[in-house]
């Protein structure tokens, strides 16, 4: 029987089948089934090939039958953090694409960085009977989700860990990335390096600060109190912090910016200065390479964060009885000029 | 009776009341009520003051009582277009903020620019009993929403008009903005101007093309077929289109880019050229002013689009029996250098 026999079956019209996907991807039917149902045992490369074949063929799982069979709604909820932060764009889109490849509808809502809104939204999505929930947490206490998780709502945290509960989490190596970025500045001759980050209640902010401190300590460099500033990423706050550490008797010769919102403001402050000040930013951002100098960054892979988290969610939904896991994705230093400026005297 | 009497009422704990909001904003109680309930008759300035007071005091309408009274869910749905296009960030956030100020929960989903997904998602949100729907349309036929609208789901379209139904729409002056941007290039001495835009099935793309053609015609300039390219905003497609119109016997000396995704790619292509080519882009984007030359743009106000559309939605929900309206917001030309480069010979 040729592999595409069922595509010519009138009952299915021209809709592609799993067998078509298997043939296109050059893998076995069981592998396609594993990917579609989110089961383990498929390498990332193979999964990518299968997902590309699914996309190319326009394959759609027959969801209505599935929902009837499993008592599910084929809907997944995503609690976003900030709708206007471009970092989350590729992450959100990756979640959507994986959900779509699994035949699930994705419903989002944004916490706008407010723990109360996160809770309200997550519970509202559960009340609307999502099968699973992906949360970019704003708060540090997620015990409110325990009854939902017990009731069967698969839950995966991404970008930041859950607080007070044991749940799957997928995040970047924030500590190691910041450590590497600051070590890069130190290797370039800098001794007075500033750190400007997000609110200290945010996990990524404190992890990156920890990386900064570890790099400075490893090089035997003391950190003046005026060189560290955590708080809102509001441009006025960040610009004031940058100007403050660039002035005074011990001005910094380099700045490590704790996330893309901070970096963009620091770029503006530095562009108005007469002397060159080195800059490395956590997070890549659009056009960073076209600025003069190009902005050196510690890049996360936001799409991979979203993809891995959603894969994990569908593994749980497929009934894989695995213990909660913590996945940390590596970051990548991209030198573009700003981080390679020598210290000015 | 002091205005804050009820805040000390134990039944309400310390929750601020509408009277507190009125006092803080320096307006009457009826005005606050109008804003909270989305009724007409409040100037934008006053509304802004009331919304700021609501935010400052942390005022929340008592929704459970309201839902019981009106049979509503206090949930609004937003059909997004592309989660990774930064243009929509401020629009989405404005929708969220206005919904929040009205005590409503916002649930989003993204069509990823696919009409089938838009339809699937809009109907899924209706099935989950949203009171109202804001749609950034991907498709051109919205008759599928007619039964929902008849059943009472308030629906407002934003950024692009609805197709096949008569519904509220809030959009930018796409025609006028493009016309002004191209006229600006012509005033600078350009005669051979290229246009690179989005898919011709997208309303904004064709409106902006119409503006380009009108400006060229008004100046008595013929448009060579090779100067116009519509299609996907995929960087490879856009870069190829730009390179093609910059080569050949009649190369363009200026490019008008049809949206921010196109502009960013054209900036990259032009940065690699030896001769200067002028550029005006539709949509402002982050860091446009820090590039060298700064990028001249025709700026929309995406936050205002979201705000006006959501105001309209809550006016409908408040029962204002108004006929469907079309609101067009003006655009603004921001000269930054790239659009003021003279034609190279």
From TrEMBL, chains A, B:
Q: What is this protein called?
A: LacI family transcriptional regulator
| Keyword annotations | DNA-binding, Transcription, Transcription regulation
- Origin organism is Streptomyces virginiae
Query: Could you name the domain of life of the organism this protein comes from?
Result: Bacteria
Record flagged with keyword Hydrolase: no
- Annotated region Disordered: where? 324-345
- InterPro entries, per database record: HTH_LacI, LacI/GalR-like_sensor, Lambda_DNA-bd_dom_sf, Peripla_BP_I
Instruction: Name the lineage.
Output: Bacteria, Bacillati, Actinomycetota, Actinomycetes, Kitasatosporales
PROSITE patterns, sorted = HTH_LACI_1, HTH_LACI_2
Where is the HTH lacI-type domain positioned along the sequence?
16-70
């Amino acid at each position: 029987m040729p592999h595409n026999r069922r595509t010519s079956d009138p009952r299915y019209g021209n809709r592609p089948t799993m067998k078509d996907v298997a043939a296109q991807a050059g893998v076995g039917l069981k592998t396609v089934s594993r990917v579609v149902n989110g089961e383990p045992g498929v390498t990332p490369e193979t999964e990518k090939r299968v997902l590309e074949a699914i996309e190319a063929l326009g394959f759609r799982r027959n969801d209505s039958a599935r929902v009837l069979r499993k008592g599910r709604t084929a809907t997944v909820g995503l609690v976003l953090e900030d709708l206007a932060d471009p970092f989350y764009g590729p992450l959100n889109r990756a979640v959507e694409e994986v959900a779509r490849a699994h035949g699930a509808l994705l419903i989002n809502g944004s916490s706008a960085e407010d723990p109360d809104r996160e809770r309200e939204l997550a519970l509202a999505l559960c009340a609307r009977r999502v099968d699973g929930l992906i949360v970019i947490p704003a708060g540090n206490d997620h015990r409110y989700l325990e009854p939902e998780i017990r009731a069967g709502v698969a839950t995966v945290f991404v970008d930041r860990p859950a607080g007070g509960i044991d749940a799957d989490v997928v995040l970047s190596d924030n500590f190691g990335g910041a450590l590497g970025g600051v070590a890069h500045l130190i290797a370039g001759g800098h001794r007075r390096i500033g750190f400007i980050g997000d609110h200290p209640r945010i996990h990524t902010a404190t992890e990156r600060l920890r990386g900064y401190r570890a790099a400075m300590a490893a090089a035997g460099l003391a950190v003046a109190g005026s060189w560290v500033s955590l708080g809102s990423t509001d441009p006025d706050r960040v610009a004031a912090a940058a100007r403050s550490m660039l002035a005074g008797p011990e001005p910094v010769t380099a700045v490590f910016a704790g996330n893309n919102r901070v970096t963009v403001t620091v770029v503006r402050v530095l562009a108005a200065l007469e002397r060159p000040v080195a800059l490395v930013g956590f997070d890549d951002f659009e056009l960073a390479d076209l600025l003069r100098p190009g902005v050196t960054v510690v890049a996360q892979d936001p799409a991979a964060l979203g993809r891995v988290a959603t894969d994990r969610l569908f593994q749980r939904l497929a009934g894989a009885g695995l213990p909660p896991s913590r996945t940390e994705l590596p970051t990548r230093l991209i030198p573009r000029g700003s981080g390679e400026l020598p210290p000015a005297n």
